[in-house]
Amino acid sequence: MKEFFLSKRVSELNWSGIFNSEQSAREGFSKIASAITQSGARLLSLELFGGDWLNAPSEEYIASFGYEFPVNRILPLDENSKPVLGGAHVVAVKGADVEVVRSSEGDIAVKYSDGEGTEYFRTFGITTDSFPADEYSHTYENISRLERILRAGGYAYTDIVRTWFYNDDILSWYEPFNKARTCFYKERGIFGSLLPASTGIGAPNPKHVRIESGAFVVKPKNSSVKAYEIESPLQCGAPEYGSSFSRAVEIDTPSGKRILVSGTASIAPGGETLYQDDISAQVDLTMRVISAILEARGLSLKDTVRSVSYCLRPEYYEVFKKWLADNGLADMPHIPSYSIVCRGDLLFEVELEAAVNI
């Protein structure tokens, strides 16, 4: 479990567990539930990656807390694939009161403070109940619904520092998704504010809708807490090739520094895919790109508190594990997922969060 201080009195706890069966999930959930209870922390959000074998243990785990929190559930591309990839990531907070926010549509978020005025807001599992025939309209409606849960908490879309979009069958409609997001962002003035870090990955969800999304908000009280976009030394900005997200966002507080790295893959400085048929080379470049982002800001991969590795084929996860071991990072917190990256020639992607206390 990694602890990151938001202030002298309030801290966030991050825990990642890799599961590949119902039994391993039960064991992992039991361990983290005990740790949260003993620490006196309050669970904020839960991300779940895995097939039907994860249903019973995750439902039992969620019910054991007796209170609500946002949940994101992502399914593998093939339930019967081997090796089985899956796991869970938990974020909890210690020393803060947590308010559960519910929109009129039933979406759930949590709101909390660092005790010194800066507010935090997390939501996950946002889907739309309407099913527009075209992908553009479906995307626009999903982002609008995400905005509505923000408004229920007293926030605007411009307060977001990071988003997640899990799009079923992403390769068949990534272009209209990007167009709708860009249009929405122009209408809301996002490009004149903070362009959020983001993940856009291809993965089905239990509701069998086109998109399941989520967002993380940081609302500073004053200039002592800052959230701003940072560049990737080894890649161009994503808007240069039509994707509306920043490569990374940094959040600085008097107590520490946090960097939210967007979904990152084997993309050249000019925006084209590199090493199209070489998973080892794609993994290596992906991790070098992320490492360069962190090192430019005084952090390293050893400061990782959360990450997800998205593998186009389940066996690619072994290549990633080998890279971690070869680079002295075998214990880096991460979860593997059997998912599609946003380009047909990309085999692997990683999103990551790193943090250091001052």
Descriptive account of the structure:
- The model has no long low-confidence stretch (mean pLDDT 95).
- The chain is an alpha+beta fold and 358 residues long.
- It is 26% helix and 32% strand.
- The chain folds into three domains: 1-96, PurM-like, N-terminal domain (60s Ribosomal Protein L30, Chain: A); 101-222, 60s Ribosomal Protein L30, Chain: A; 255-358, 60s Ribosomal Protein L30, Chain: A.
- The strands form three sheets. Strands 6-7-8-11-9-10 form a six-stranded mixed beta sheet, covered by helices on one side. A six-stranded mixed beta sheet has the order 12-13-14-17-15-16, with helices on one face.
- It has six helices and 17 strands.
- The chain has helices spanning 22-39, 55-65, 135-153, 174-188, 279-296, 316-326; strands spanning 2-5, 11-18, 42-49, 71-74, 87-94, 99-102, 108-113, 119-126, 160-167, 197-202, 211-219, 226-230, 248-253, 256-264, 304-311, 335-338, 348-357.
